[in-house]
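ok trying this again, last paste got cut off
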Amino acid sequence: MTLKRVEDRLKERFHERVQSGVKLARFTTYRLGGPAGLYIEPASVEEVEVLARVLQEEGATDVATLALGRGSNLVISDEGWPGLVIRMGPQFSWIKDDGPAEGDGGTLTAGAATALPLLANWAARRALAGLEFAVAIPGSVGGGVKMNAGAHGGEMADHLTSARVFSLDSLTVEERPAQSLDLTYRRSNLGPADLVLDARFDLVSGAAETIRERMEAYRKHRAETQPGAVQNAGSVFKNPPGDSAGRLVEAAGLKGFRVGGAAVAQIHANFFIAGEGATAQDVYDLVTSVRGRVLERFGIDLEPEIRFAGAFAQRVPS
């Protein structure tokens, strides 16, 4: 079996950091999902290159690959992920001061595994403004770049200047300018074979106290309007032009609507929570049902912001 050959080859280099059957639920904020066919945590760019070469040499470039960060907008199937899961190790969590920016401000580079709240706080301590919105996003820099994460009117594209990306297809590391990534509302052109290694940001100077106050307001807003402690993956649907996904779901009378162990949150209708006994399929079915009901009621087809990975049963929405 191809995946088994890949595992044997990689264990020669990575040892215990290559494993089969690793339960993926603990790597997502939903705490749901089955095992990985093969799981690896590279500790350096060189190790990513080794991984890619093994895939090429074993003729396994078509093995389904899932890049996993902090799992804050991801639902993994109860059956798991049958192919390869790549999760950047803690060695990819770092921030470097790159000095002054052109004009008034500063630049920084952050590794792909760096938590977005950590990045926001690092910039704030240096009186650099522009990343305050990230303080309440429980994702990573790599995932944030890939989906152009945002909140409170700000997004990664506002201050991202470039990202260093490794392509599993071409075995090359490229410094890609932000304008080449096609960053739009919660998306980029980065695909499954593109692994973000790090990202560079150009920020502006600001009053430290004002930056802190803004961040505290964002934290407070999150605590008051979002189901923080329960299992969820943030906003389920993208906001349609000129409207709010949460308003549409609530207007359809779906607050508290439940499928199995998953339910639309009472505090905010664009957050779906996983209660005791919930499965990933429950979340998938809930998203499908709510999407269908909003479409039937308002003629608006909501686009999911959260991603689903793996196999899910396709059922008729109830």
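PB: full thing came through this time. The chain has a mean pLDDT of 94.
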